[in-house]
Amino acid sequence: MRYGIGVTLWWMGCGSASVVPEKPPRANQDLVEEATSPVEDDGLDDLDVGLRGLTLGNANGRPLVVALHGRGDHPTRFVRQAEGWADVAHVVVPAATIPYGRGFSWFDVRARQDDPTLAAAVSEAARKVVQLVNARRAGNHPVVVTGFSQGGMLSFALATRAERVVDAAVPMGGFLPKDLWPEHRPEDAPPIFAVHGEADTIIPVSFPQATVAHLKTLGWPVELYTEPGVRHALSLGMMRKVDGAVRAGLSSR
Length: 253
Known about the structure:
By secondary structure, the chain is α/β, with parallel strands linked by helices.
């Protein structure tokens, strides 16, 4: 079973070299497979923090983008969403830790907003990504986290931790479980720009809307962009927004 759409979405440039990369990220189809076929782990590198994955771009003295795939996806596929940022940043696409279909999953819990089990699973997966960020960040250069579906949940989780980990987050098709909602906004709260399809039946748009509404009550710099008719996937317009938000985060210092 695939979560997403069954057609190929082609990128349409928006005419600004400062926003659209030479190889822009592609519109995403969240690849979620039945857990029956073997895991494709060829071509992954050891990331030295108990995770494997792919890296793009020079790591020396550059900003960092961590791109987190969704359930059943694989870095060798999801990297196509992130490769356009390698012209301005070191890009890391880690593999989740649980084999699932032809890819991996960050956790084996369904996306229910009020489920404390989901909150605990997201928190544990986020802890591993924090270790990766701390190992890969280059001095004071900006760190941006983005991700789709489960990766979107983790992006929210990293951005709202009590101790600042990232400089900006761009969650796609995700939300933050209620048990992880922060009670206070830190002075240096990183900006969050989220995108979500209004026709999503896997993670209803009401989930990120609730997350964002709560964060706004705390004064968090957060914005949610939605599009009608889009299911658990990304439209071309959404990908343009994502690219612009990631690049803005990379130039935040």
